[in-house]
Design brief:
CATH class of the largest domain: Alpha Beta
Largest sheet: 8 strands, mixed
Strand order of the largest sheet: 1-11-12-13-16-10-9-4
Strand content: 15-25%
Distance between the termini: 52 Å
Structural class: alpha+beta
Helix content: 40-55%
Radius of gyration: 27 Å
RNA sequence: GGAGAGAUGGCGGAGCGGUUGAACGCGGCGGUCUUGAAAACCGCUGGCCCUUCACGGGGCUCGUGGGUUCGAAUCCCACUCUCUCCUCCA
């Protein structure tokens, strides 16, 4: 959520930022007008309340309180009526302002390039070479099905489209990836968290997933309508909201968290895209990395976060490139986002494996996470960052495609072997 | 699911319906003392909002939302959460 104060002080700045994202900016004047009305109403109500408080204090100081109360009661009743009348529109105005404000995306950082869609994203750097094969590399679903480690058919029977059953060495390899990712996160100083994957509506709202992305979310019914719980689409949600409504001490920052969780997404609007394989699933696993940090260093921290994520793919020996997302492609919460895309030989293309964002104070304001630099300082909002420190499914797909052998078997990347307990999968699905 | 207890400031812990935004202790900050530190002593020490160039002024806030009252942290109702016991359970 944007700071109302920013709209008041620099409306043009907000207008420009909105246009860069390709959305209209009429909301600025609409909100400012509502805000003017709101403040006028507050001033009116509070003046009346102050008057009333004077009378009430008079009674409490009087020797004969009963008599004083009796005397002043008519005046107070009159004030009560005025207060009620003056404040009548206030809740409505506040609700309108909050509702409008909550739908505005974050202000983009100056370094974000112009552009309306992914074609305008900028290549920042790339690492590694796509491997050369002396045979036609297969897509991962073919490799996985041949080896008997990926089973899409039975998954469909259980749950429908966009689910996968991992079997034997496949399940094992997936678990190895989890271990590897969490291990590297710990080495990089992240504290491992095992959070709930069902969260309340207000938690989901606080990290900016609602109300804009409600159609992407699975909801679990509660006993009452307002007791519904949401399945997290990413561990960014519980990790970012972990310190909700807290004031953190400045010397404790940055806080860095990691979590391995399942993630659930409806993928509405993605019909027909990536229908095969592990790329786009309703349920997938991910290791997430989240920072709560000081405002002045958050953009430097974003670079660190990106290198934490890219380091994983260097160690796995998978070629990748880092893209800086353009204005139109940058997410709602984010001021600046880098995508890390890894090479998939079977698809002959790079695919997103991690999206690293600096959400500045946008989520912190919604979630109310603040910091106090020292004992006398005023609280200020922290900056939050998030990115995946390992997408399990997509990385598994990349490993299958990059490390496939001509005979249909698979070589396990060196760094994964201690976690997997084997170094290769043979064409018959056995491990070695 | 059944029975009880409780939710107060960074922490602990008071609080007859009327200068209680909240005693007291701890912690934190500033100062005196000291070569320095500790101890001792003195002072300050929640958050949000409106208003003001500023100094300041004002409103709200004792789990949340309602109610009673001229006035509520204190009384009433509902909800949420925590703890103890029983029951059940991965």
């Amino acid at each position: 959520m944007l700071n109302l104060d920013l709209l008041r002080r620099e409306p043009d700045h907000v207008r420009v930022a909105a246009r860069r994202r390709g959305i209209g900016a009429e909301f600025v004047d609409r909100i400012l007008e509502l805000d003017r009305e709101r403040r006028a109403a507050i001033t009116g109500v509070e003046a009346l309340k102050a008057e009333k408080n004077v009378l009430t204090a008079q009674i409490s100081r009087a020797a004969d309180k009963k008599a004083a109360a009796a005397e002043l009661r008519p005046q107070i009743a009159e004030l009560d009526a005025s207060i009620a009348a003056a404040g009548e529109r206030l809740p409505v105005l506040e609700q309108q302002i909050d509702a409008e404000l909550a739908e505005i995306p974050n202000i983009l950082d100056g370094s974000v390039p112009d552009g309306s869609d992914e074609h305008a994203n900028v290549l920042v750097r790339s690492w590694g070479e796509p491997p050369a094969f002396d045979f036609e590399p297969r897509p991962h679903w073919e490799i996985g099905e041949r080896l008997g480690i990926l089973d899409f058919e039975r998954a469909a029977r259980l749950s429908g489209a966009r689910f996968t059953v991992l079997r034997g060495a496949g399940a094992r390899l997936s678990r190895a990836l989890v271990g590897f990712f969490l291990d590297r996160a710990a080495r990089n100083g992240y504290v491992e968290i095992d959070p709930p994957v069902l969260v309340t509506r207000s938690t989901m709202w606080s990290t900016g997933q609602l109300t804009k992305f409600a159609d992407q979310m699975y909801v679990v019914e509660g006993d009452a309508p307002d007791e519904a719980l949401y399945l997290i689409p990413t561990a960014e949600v519980p990790l970012t909201a972990l310190h909700r409504d807290e004031i953190l001490s400045g010397d404790g920052l940055p806080l860095r968290y990691t979590a391995h969780t399942p993630c659930f997404r409806k993928e509405a609007g993605a019909a027909g895209r990536d229908t095969r394989g592990l790329i786009r699933q309703h349920q997938f696993e991910k290791v997430e990395l989240v920072w709560l940090t000081m405002p002045e260093r958050s953009f430097d921290d974003l670079e660190t976060l990106v290198s934490n994520a890219t380091g994983l793919y260097e160690q796995l020996g998978i070629a990748y490139r880092v893209m800086l997302l353009c204005a139109g492609d940058t997410g709602f919460n984010s001021a600046k986002t880098y995508d890390i895309e890894i090479w998939l030989p079977g698809a002959n293309t790079y695919r997103e494996a991690s999206s690293c964002s600096n959400c500045t104070d946008f989520q912190a304001r919604r979630t109310s996470i603040r910091l106090r630099r020292d004992a006398t300082a005023k609280p200020e909002f922290v900056h939050t960052l998030n990115g995946s420190g390992g997408a399990i499914g997509r990385t598994l797909a990349a490993i299958l495609e990059n490390y496939q052998r001509a005979d249909g078997g698979l070589t396990v990347p060196e760094v994964l072997r201690p976690f997997a307990g084997f170094s290769a999968i043979e064409p018959d699905g056995s491990t070695r």
